[in-house]
Structures are given as structure tokens and as C-alpha cells.
Amino acid sequence: MSTTLVSVRYPLTADSHRTIRRGVDHLEDDGDSLIILHVRLIQNGDKLTRRALREAVEREVGTIPAHYVVRQGYVLEEAIIDEAARQRAVRVIVGKTKRGRIRRRFGQLLGLYPDLETELERNLSTTLEVVE
After folding, report:
1. Which of 37, 22, 20, 26 is nearest to 3 (CA)?
2. Residues 33 and 69: beta-carbon distance below 8 Å
3. Res 75: pLDDT
4. Which of 1, 16, 70, 116 could be a cystine partner for 12, CB 3.0 to 4.6 Å?
């Protein structure tokens, strides 16, 4: 029995579809669980509900055996790490960061934009899978 946590953006993007499908691919046993997570960043004023997330996923991807979680937080990486620990996830799946290389590096130097994959790899005690 294993738990896979998939982090998605809302509204759903092509990357979100790929990460969800990869999460579904990891469901092997009846006891396996898939958790679809969206982090509502407080500073963005996002008002998404769990029900709206589920309906959006089902409309775009179809009905899948998943649990839906919407968490509120200031820092995306911290919210994903906390939820992975809370759910005892053995695998976390995220989409590849799309921010431009120069912009990303400049932001990292100033401490504005931490690199999602690096932060998760450094702080997760589970398997991290990045979907391109």
C-alpha cells in the first residue's frame, strides 16, 4: 500500500494533466492511494475549493480514484513537504518549473524564487518525480 501525492496548478495546465496521469500510472494495488494537491498561495488571493478542484480534474481528465486536497500557504515548497509528511506519501510528483533560466537564476540569487525541485529534493524524505 503506497500513497502518491501529485501537486497541480489551478486552473489546470497541460503540465497538470501530465502529472496527474503519471500519478495514476503509479496506482498498482487496490490499497494504493493518489492525492491531488493544489496549494492556494495566500498572497495570490486564490479561493479554490476542494470540490472545484475535483470537478475541474474530472472534467479535464475523467473520473480517477483520487483524494483531493487544497491547502493554503505562503510558500509552495513548504506546503508540499508538509502535506507529503501528513499523508505519509512515498512519492511526490510535480511538474517541471517553467520559469526562464536567467530569470530563475536571478531570482534565486536575490532569494525571491527558490527552485521548487531543489527545495523538495533537499527536504523530502520520499521519492520525488519531476514530470517534464
Report:
1. 26
2. no
3. 82
4. 16
Mean pLDDT of all residues in 120-130 = 84
* Contact assessment for residue 34 and residue 63, using Cβ atoms and an 8 Å cutoff: no
**pLDDT (tens digit per residue) in 60-96:** 999 999 999 999 988 888 899 999 999 999 999 998 7
Query: Would you kindly state where each structural domain of the chain is located, as residue ranges?
Result: 3-131
CATH H-level superfamily of 3-131: HUPs (3.40.50.620)
**Ramachandran region, residue 20 (left: φ > 0; alpha: ψ -120 to 50; beta: rest):** alpha
**Whose CA is closest to 95, among 117, 71, 68?**
117
Q: Quote the Cα angle for 85-91-93, to 5°.
A: 105
